[in-house]
Design a protein that fits this description.
Strand content: 5-15%
Number of helices: 20
Shape: globular
Largest sheet: 4 strands, antiparallel
Radius of gyration: 25 Å
Helix content: 55-70%
Structural class: mainly alpha
Length: 512
């Protein structure tokens, strides 16, 4: 089957399982997930979606998210959008209907049970996550996530260019590669301003226009707080603040400026007022904050070393579950702007290594449970490439203890990389988004690429091993083993007769 036909077939398989075109209110995608706004959640068939070959898992948050993996999601989303448009044009919106009632007799110690448990837990977390802080952090993520493909592409070109320069190859081509790699980063503030205004309800191009002031070379002739400004001072944080201010100025103008003058006065006042505040205030303040972030990150890893890496690597998965990891996106971007790479991402990526090790241990500890083992075998390749959702929501989180021991694996992997940072061998990433093995092309540091890659690979191995050992020896209680280390067929008959210790309505992880 041709690639385009395959992507369209995937989109066509997904659409009826989310309630059809009339049930879809919004469509977006990030690095790995198709994110859908839905009118009626009860029309979604979760289990049938998970059975679609290209679907790695589903996550319910403020949107319904279908995990397709990097690359695939960017190809399936346009096909899905086209099918939705065709469906809306062809038929009126159907009246919502109730979904099928679950069969209580189907409870068994299988992957289906774990998926049901995970769905219940995610629904509870969704209600808890609708706080003003977390909604604000989601907005911040919506600003930066669309920039990730460009960060990745330019980061890989930068790595390739560095390798060619070190080897002395293609000297006539390397200046062109340097221009390609640096061009986006030189103007990233403009893109941040554009996306910020769009996200906060303003005119995107006005947000970009105000943010462009920050990178304009002419600001070097301006003094603020007794100091000459530098082009780019304040970076993405300054651009974000400038664009938010522009949105509020624009909205004020829309309310008070007469309609006949709106097209002339509103954009002029928006750029003038927010531009002056940006030049004579925000650039300086945001520059100080950006410098403090870089200084603190260097100090933390230079002095905290293994301890700091241990804490960061161990806590990252819980931060993801709480939705607080989105606060790190502008910090990563600021570090990339300042230093050319973020030293935090390789440490945080160790959380995925711990997850892989924990899943491998679950596989060996449950030799009789074919269903869970099949889930692990299908999800493990994606986990190695940094796509951890299928393992988290399908295996470790519903089981309870293996999620905790996976965090332990991430902590040891993070501690390993943190130790080398303390010893003077920095390991960084020139972009955000990828993790696991997919991060290798984006690695950079203060030493050669070989040294940097070796340290990162060592961290992955430590994370795999620590996650495996912690889960194998401490991830299962006797009751948990007795419940899950059974063949699926006998489990079904036992549960049918006794009601079983676990049902699809269970609210807490097993064995906790």
């Amino acid at each position: 089957m041709a690639t385009e036909d395959k992507n369209r077939a995937t989109a066509a398989a997904i659409l009826p399982l989310v309630g059809g075109a009339a049930n879809v209110s919004s469509i977006a995608h990030c690095m790995t997930r198709l994110r859908l706004g839905l009118h009626d959640r009860s029309l979604v068939d979760d289990e049938a979606l998970k059975a679609v070959p290209a679907v790695m898992g589903v996550v319910e948050d403020d949107t319904y998210q279908i995990v397709l993996g990097p690359g695939t999601v960017a190809r399936v989303t346009p096909e899905f959008e086209q099918l939705v448009e065709e469906g809306r044009a062809a038929a009126p919106a159907p009246a919502p209907t109730s979904g099928p009632a679950p069969d209580p007799a189907s409870a068994s110690a299988s992957a289906d049970e774990l998926a049901a448990q995970g769905a219940a837990m995610k629904a509870a977390r969704k209600a808890k996550n609708a706080t003003p802080l977390k909604l604000f952090l989601r907005r911040i993520a919506n600003i930066f996530v669309p920039l990730i493909p460009a960060l990745i592409g330019c980061g890989i070109i930068a790595g390739l260019n560095g390798l060619l320069v070190n080897l002395g190859w293609l000297t006539s081509v390397t200046p062109a590669l340097a221009a390609m790699a640096s061009g986006f980063m030189a103007l990233i503030a403009v893109f941040v301003g554009y996306n910020t205004a769009k996200e906060f309800g303003g005119t995107p191009i006005l947000g970009g226009a105000v943010a462009a002031i920050i990178v304009f070379p002419g600001v070097a002739n301006i003094e603020a707080f007794g100091q000459k400004l530098s082009p780019g001072q304040g970076g993405v944080l300054g651009a974000l603040g400038a664009a938010v201010l522009a949105v509020y100025v624009e909205k004020w103008c829309r309310r008070w400026v007469p309609e006949a003058l709106d097209v002339l006065v509103t954009p002029t006042l928006t750029v003038l007022v927010s531009g002056l505040v940006t030049i004579f205030g925000l650039m300086y303040v945001a520059g100080e904050v950006s410098t403090a972030i870089g200084t603190f990150a260097d100090w933390l890893l230079s002095n905290g070393g293994a301890g700091a890496g241990f804490v960061l690597g161990g806590l990252f998965l819980p931060l993801v579950m709480l939705g607080l990891h989105q606060a790190l996106i502008p910090i990563h971007t600021t570090l990339i702007e300042q230093q050319g790479y973020t030293v935090l991402l390789p440490i945080l990526a160790m959380a995925g290594a711990g997850q892989v090790g924990a899943a491998a241990a679950v596989y060996f500890r449950l030799p009789r449970n074919e269903s869970i083992r099949r889930t692990i075998k299908s999800a493990l390749p994606a986990g190695l490439l940094g796509v951890g959702e299928p393992l988290i929501y399908g295996v470790s989180l519903p089981l309870g203890r293996p999620f905790i021991t996976a965090c332990v694996g991430g902590a040891f992997g993070g501690g390993f990389i943190g130790l080398f940072n303390q010893l003077g061998d920095k390991v960084g990433s020139t972009a955000i988004g990828p993790s696991g093995w997919a991060l290798f092309p984006l690695l950079d540091g203060n030493h050669g690429l070989g040294t940097t890659a070796a340290i990162y690979a060592g961290g992955l191995l430590v994370g795999y091993l620590a996650g495996f050992l912690a889960t194998y020896f401490f991830g299962f209680s006797k009751d948990l083993l007795a419940e899950f280390n059974v063949s699926q067929e006998p489990a079904e008959s036992t549960v049918a007769a006794t009601g079983g210790p676990m049902s699809p309505t269970t609210k807490e992880p097993a064995g906790v």
